[in-house]
Design goal:
Elements (H helix, E strand, L loop, with lengths): L5 E5 L5 H10 L5 E5 L11 H16 L5 E4 L2 H14 L4 E2 L2 H11 L4 E6 L1 H6 L1 H9 L4 E6 L3 H6 L5 H12 L9 E4 L8 H8 L4 E4 H15 L13 E5 L3 H12 L5 E4 L6
Parallel strand pairs: 1-2, 1-3, 2-9, 3-4, 5-6, 5-7, 7-8, 9-10
Helix pairs in contact: 1-10, 2-3, 4-6, 4-10, 8-9
The protein binds ligand I24 and D-glutamic acid (DGL).
Length: about 270
């Protein structure tokens, strides 16, 4: 049993959707969350650049003696998971494998849709990961660039948002999918609109939530879970952006008070 924290990295605040699942499912684990808010979004950036930024985040948390690293961001996972797994001495978990396995296990029609950022879709990592499970599955990937701004501009409610989501998902409507992966940290916020646009016959898979189940299982297998009687876990949040707005959003979303949020610098911004 290990009291050390689990590190979680993301391009900004979106990974807090994964963090919320983690705090629910493994509440006695300590977490250090780092969001690169200053350089968010990662979605439209070249994958090589995302890989470098992700490495910088990993290096920062390695200094804090974490026992495991979770890449909450799909784009960062697509760009850097393999590199981090090869170059860090601790287990590194991304969000793509768990989402792919859950989707492959869900689809009956063997037709899966992937929703993600431009970077995630361009990388082709989701289709490759699904084909490792079952190469006969047909995968249809769709980049949804309007979705992240929809959430971040606080316009994810109402008729306009409904229209943007429905229009963006139009290319998937005639693909006879029965399973669609929410392959981006922000998309669980849009889940009701995405479900409505795709119809009730489509099962949505939340890659972040699936990943947290994997993390819990892995902690057990590796025998590095925190002692449930070990006292209160420690949650720390680091952001490359301003601490105060991060803190306000995190406290609202996680329904917690007095979160420990610090501004930090990475690389030479
Ligand atoms: N949601 C996200 N990013 C934002 C936002 C949001 N503003 C409102 N909401 N802004 O991501 C990004 C830039 N900020 C972040 C804070 O530090 C300063 C820079 C999705 C977050 C998912 C947990 C909408 C909103 C909210 C509260 C909770 C959830 C949510 F205001 F989606
Ligand atoms: N966190 C990113 C992802 O899951 C979405 C936001 C961004 O583009 O940085 O792909």
């Amino acid at each position: 049993m290990t009291k050390q924290a689990i590190g979680m990295i993301d391009s900004g605040v979106g990974g807090l959707t994964v963090m919320k699942e983690a705090m629910k499912l493994i509440p006695n684990e300590s977490f250090y969350y780092l969001g690169d808010t200053a350089r968010c979004p990662y979605g439209p950036r070249p994958l090589e650049e995302v890989k470098e930024f992700t490495w910088q985040m990993a290096e920062f948390l390695m200094e804090k003696n974490i026992k495991m690293l979770v890449i909450a961001c799909n784009t960062a996972t697509a760009a850097a998971l393999e590199f981090l797994q090869e170059n860090l001495p601790i287990p590194v978990v991304g969000v793509i494998q768990s989402g792919s396995q859950a989707a492959a296990g869900t689809t009956q029609a063997k037709r899966i849709g992937i929703l993600g950022t431009e970077g995630t879709v361009k990388s082709d990592v989701y289709p490759r990961s699904i084909h490792k499970e079952d190469e006969t599955i047909e995968v249809f990937s769709l980049a949804c660039p309007p979705f992240v701004p929809l959430v971040e501009n606080n316009t994810y409610d109402g008729e306009e948002a409904k229209k943007v989501v429905a229009d963006t998902l139009l290319p998937l409507k005639d693909k006879q999918l029965d399973t669609v992966v929410l392959g981006c940290t922000h998309y669980p916020i849009l889940r009701p609109l995405i479900q409505e646009a795709l119809g009730r016959n489509v099962q949505l898979v939340d890659a972040g939530a699936e990943t947290v189940k994997t993390v819990k299982q892995l902690l057990g297998e590796l025998n590095i879970a925190a002692n449930p009687l070990g006292g209160k876990p420690e949650w720390k949040f680091f952001t490359t952006g301003a601490a105060q707005p991060f803190k306000e959003l995190a406290e609202q979303w996680l329904e917690e008070q007095d979160l420990n949020v610090q501004h930090i610098e990475l690389g030479e911004e």
